[in-house]
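ESCALATION

Customer reports they have been waiting on this structure for their group meeting. Please prioritize. Original submission:
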Amino acid sequence: MGSRIACSVKDRLRPRLLNSSKYLFSDLDVDVRLHLNESPYSPPEFVINYVVGVLRQGNRYDAKLFNRFRELLADYVGVDISNVYPYLGGDGALRAIFYDLTEVGDKVTFVRPTYSMYDIFASIRGLHKNEVKLFECGDWWCLDLSELINKASNSYLVVIDDPNNPTGSPLLKARRESIARLAENVSGFLVIDETYYEFSKYTAAPLINEFPNIIVVRTLSKAFSLAGFRLGYIVGNHEVIEALSKAYTPFDIPAPSLAAGIAALENRDYFAKIVNELISNRDYLLNGLRNLGIKAYNSLTNFILIKDSRRIKELLLTYGIAIKDLGNSYYRISVGSRDECNKVLDVLRDVI
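Update from on-call: job pushed to the front of the queue and completed.
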């Protein structure tokens, strides 16, 4: 009996789940990690100390931590607390949007190239996908807004990462006119993923009440050096937030992560220094790559997209440096510390 049940389990799984791709990841044991867009800087001591204090109360549920974190997020964004809700990382926020707002068969529109999880969530959820391809325009990548608006008209979701990953280019740039046209055309919701907001300095968050079907997604992973704590959040109209929060509790995010977020947002001057340093390092790395004759695109993020026909990833990996291979001669290099940037440039100068 047991073997017959085991043999039939695959037949019981939904085809959309079986046929979906998954996030491809294999970590690398290297000295210089420039493949995951992480911050090269550890969380400051005041964050660690606060987390340690909370760990001592790990036997208790504590909704006060969640509520305090939510209050601080609202203050940081400049909205009412009813307009924000925390999740387990930016991925957790996106997962909630894809899974809780859509029905099987709905249409979703996003650009190409883009963050891989949009495609994965859409496939697992059984959504029909529309794509708008970005195109190179000098040292940037550009979007045909008219095409996007046209495809939005028969889509329930439009999901745009702005700035875009992996190109580093601005797409909507929080322009009210562009966002208004998309929000008015989409049959459901316009989702703007602002993972790199702290580097781009522009945001659509002030428009959430004027256009209540806009949802903004953000994270504390990059600028706040908290990737391992998995802290993300959405910003939206209070009715959207109320609906999306129904499947979650104040205890879903582990207490140590909430503690890290609280300490970071209560002392957020430190992240501005990190951002400024990474922007300086980004420009330094960008100029260095170009001086070596490598095609490197402008970026408003903490990474740089390059195009080179040589086996750049393998060359750098030989020297203990990991970058992201995107295929078709494109590579994404996270911006590290100044020393890490120099290691990349020194290796490429020697081998190229």
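Sent to customer with the following note: The first helix runs from residue 2 to 12.
Escalation resolved.
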